[in-house]
Design a protein that fits this description.
The protein is 46% helix and 11% strand. The protein is α/β, with parallel strands linked by helices. α15 (360-373) packs across α22.
Length: 693
Amino acid sequence: MDWTPEQAAIIGHPLGAHALVHAAPGAGKTTTLVGRVARLVEQVDVTRIRVVMFNKAIQETFAERLQRAGISGVKVTTFDALGLEVLGAAQRRRILTRPFEVAAQGTKDWSQAVHRNYRGKIEKSDDIADAVRFWKAHMVPPQRAACEDAPQIVEAYRDVEDLRTGGDKLLIDFPDMVYTAVAILRKHPCLLGPIDHVLIDEFQDINPARVELLQRLIHDQTALMAVGDADQAIYEFSGAHPRFFSEFADTFGNLPTRSYPLAHSFRFGPTIATAAHRLIARNEDRYPIEVVGRGKHEGRIHRVQDVPGTLQRLLTDGHPAPELAVLYRGRVQAVTVVAELAARKIPMHTEDLDMLRKGRGPELALAYLRFATSDAPVTFDDAWAAVYAPDRYIRKDAFMAQVRKHGRKGLRAVLADKSAADQPHGAIRAMADLADLLTRMGRCRTAGEALDLLTRETDIPGQLEGRKRSALELEMAIAAFDAAHTLLKSLKVRPADAAQALADFDPRAGQTADRCVWVSTIHRAKGKEWRTVFLPRLYEGLCPAARQEQPLGTTDEPEGIEQSDPLEQERRIFYVGLTRAIETVYLEVPEQDPSSFIAELEPPKPAAPAPKRAAAPVKKPTARRPTTAPPNEGKPWTAEDDAALAEARAAGTSLDDLAERFGRSTDAIDARLVIVESKRRRAEARRRELDDD
């Protein structure tokens, strides 16, 4: 094997020290690790070496590579399996008070069971499961968990743990393997015997629980080799943190630490390497490694406006589908991209189609279509989910009485009750208009036409806003409604068949997975590569994301466990997406509000002459904001308000100043900005449809 000087230095690292390897994307770190293991087995007891990989698929691949290299006896594992090994040792020594049992996907199942008690308070069961995983990654038990924005998520965590630990057996899901093992090792160290050398892959994805597991398994002379790239640390939402790179020498202080660069990428050429470095070099909290492109292709970066159309052209020209990937930042981008690709019948391998079937947005669309085509008995909850909107002024208690009286005849019978007691005249008129709208929707030939009619006559964003719990959830609900609408228009099914058509839709268009375009989040693409990569919907506010998830904290850090700078996190995510490409990157750059990251890919412009410094303005004391409700809170927004809001925000006016100007809370301003942007994008999409026609 012809090793590069960088690889040779890592392979020949001395035995009596730790090694911290900073590996650029595509730099051959796996091959280098195989070389390092081969060198170690010549020098030390093979049974006292451990190789720890990020997941089972990578672990199996690495074990196969060792086998092909003629290396046997080295234990290759994952962190979860290592934790499970500790649990097995504890059970054999009768340390556990009861037997344990692996319950794969248990966290998901327990969260679904618990979520039934929190409907209306927690959006979906996945929110509970994600919180449980995050806290366990930080070794935070329920009694130490905190969340100021949503205390009910802490209560749900306690309920999940009660389900998990309340039986005759200790149930262990993947998040519990390291979490429980560390708790045991705190009281019973050295359960696995002596380990002299540990090699850890993807070290940037390590979390506090895994760090402590390593600390409690090693002895004073154990040498670690940690390989990874802090510039690709994108899993903070699940507990990882890039600080473990910068704090490595202090965290593992039993031996001195040597740092090694692995900067030469064999994946891509200088064009992508140079752009990627310009981007990531703007992050201040990073190791100063500069990726060097040594791939076979010079590389190309293009801007496009029509991702589906460009994909179709490439496929028509013979570009193999498995060598194409469409990678997006988050869920709001995901639903629109998946819907557009599905509408164009581009075969794709994706796990994100359910976002067009489930959630408040798609469920509202399907509810309208169901009520437009069926007079089946209706429950109050189902009816209220479709009927409630702030501008309909329908009284909930009175409507409940209407459902009890007429619900067995269907929603339209409920809405047609002109003698409804305790309903204002405006509400009776709104219900009659809605009944008429449902009748006309039911007469439409296709579900797409019915939803066109609905969106022309109903303020869907406003209706979704009435049930929002955060601006982030509202943005997602609106995007998912629009995506379901787009897909149903392309399917051309009857309104009555819409739900079944969505459920049966095959994103692969009859193709096998190995003949499809890969379509996923950037996070799911980590560790993979494609000849051609598309990065769509590069709007400022979506990439980089403007809104963060609710901060999960502890009783010691109630405002949230410390995270790295949000913009630097976002830049790392974009960097990972960019560096998945071998040959070509297509960037979908909109004309309005393009991502600030686009400019960061370009060479820096010459600095303008420094202006003369003016005298510093005298700061006026900040007025104390009143504690009473803003004067316009709860009042309907007018078209003129929306236009003025959009113009002021585009001019850079802050949320606080907008709230004062419009007499509303900052939360109300934030939510309305989501709706205004949704309307703008919907109008732009309609304009494109007309242009295509």
